Every structure is written in structure tokens, then in C-alpha cells.
Amino acid sequence: MDPIYLVAGIDTGIGKTVATGLMAKSLRARGADAITVKMVQTGNDGFSEDIEAHRRICGCGLLPEDAEGITAPQIFKFPSSPKLAAELEGRTVDLNRIRECVEACAKRRRPVLVEAAGGLHVPLADGVLTIDFAAERGWPVVLVTCGRLGSINHTLLSLDAFRARGIKLAGVVYNWHPDADPMIDRDTPETILDYLGKWGFPKRIVRTPRVPDGGPYPDIDFSEIFQ
To answer: 183 pLDDT exceeds 90?
Structure first.
């Protein structure tokens, strides 16, 4: 198992936060001292709602690292791309702070699941997209997708971008989505697996069931991804 993973989605609202929480829950249930980090939180003031969701799903409560602020190193009020949200506050996204906080977490607990903000091509700073940051750090990526209309296009574009940048793919999480057409929902995972094989990625995909708001949160085995 790698010490640090980036959890990235094909789009905003694809279910990254729930998927990250479920993966952490699974890892902790199987003996790993997993911790999650929200790389950049927008739309919040002084706290990270995504970190709170991760802890609620895990059932572990807030961790000492949360109180230290190293699991949500960059928080901005406006719900937008990190670059814009930072500019509206007269700030810039401190990429070094993110690196330092993730590495500090990795010295205490492993693995660290770093949830990205939005999709892979979301701007973090001038000339830096989320996927650029992932490539620079060399973290393997867990890609979160689903079967809603249009998701197959975004999924394959994401995989192709990984291929172009030499990014390691740990696996794919395929979330249940209320708007997924049953026919599309059956076809999409098979198409993803087909292209994973064609493009030289590991053929690892884990499906999640419907997760009700507020739980109960299922125990899903993600060991196929975390090898």
C-alpha cells in the first residue's frame, strides 16, 4: 500500500467526499490507521465540512490532526475553484502548506487519503491545475465516477490525462447515482474496465451502493484498490 493517495473526481458533486469517507472506514476496519485530508476546502469559513463528513462516515470522531488544522490546510469562503476563492480573499493557494501538512499526516498515520477539490482540471493557482499538482507529487490517484449521463466521457478524458502525464492509477470507485439510467449504469463499468486494460492501467473498480444521508454507512471492501 502506498503512503499517500489522491482521491479525485471526474467532476464536482460526483461523490468524492462520501467515497473518501467510505475508503477510510474500510481501511480502518481492516487494521490500517488511515486518515483523510481535504486538500483545499471552498465554501466554508474556518472549518471543513468534508473532513467532518469523513469522520462521521468513519465513526471515529474528530482526530488530533483536525484540531491542529493539518487535515484542512487551505480553507476559503467562496464555493468555487480554489484559485478564484483565494483571489476573492486577496490570497493565493499555498501549495507548500498542502505538501507539508500531507507529509506531516503521513508521518503519523497511513495511508493518507487526500480529497481533491472538484475535478482534475480545476485551477489551484496560476498555471497549476489539480492534475499538475498530482503529477508533481507522484501520488497514485483513486478516480471517483458514476453512471450519470455524460460521466463516461469525463471518466475516459480523466484516464487519458493520467496516461499523458504518467500518473499512477490505484483504481476507480464507481458510485451509485440517483440519476443514472439503468442501461447506462450497466454499460459504464464494463466500458471503463475495457479502457483500463487497453491503456495499461490496473483493472480495478469498486462499486458503492446507495448511501443514505446520515447513514447507516456500509462497510465496503476496497482492498482491490489498496494493494
So the answer is: yes
- The reported pTM is 0.96
Alpha helix stretches (DSSP H) within the chain: 16-29, 49-58, 64-68, 82-88, 95-108, 130-137, 151-165, 182-198
Within a 10 A sphere around the Cβ of 65, how many other Cβ atoms? 20
Q: What is the pLDDT of residues 34-50, one digit of tens each?
A: 999 999 999 999 999 99
Please state, as a whole number, how many other Cβ atoms lie within 10 Å of the Cβ of residue 32. 15
List domains and CATH numbers for the chain. Answer: 4-207 (3.40.50.300)
**Residue 13 Cα to chain centre, angstroms:** 11
C-alpha 92/C-alpha 56 separation (Å) is 30
Q: Which are the catalytic amino acids?
A: 38
- In angstroms, the CA 102 to CA 37 distance is 7
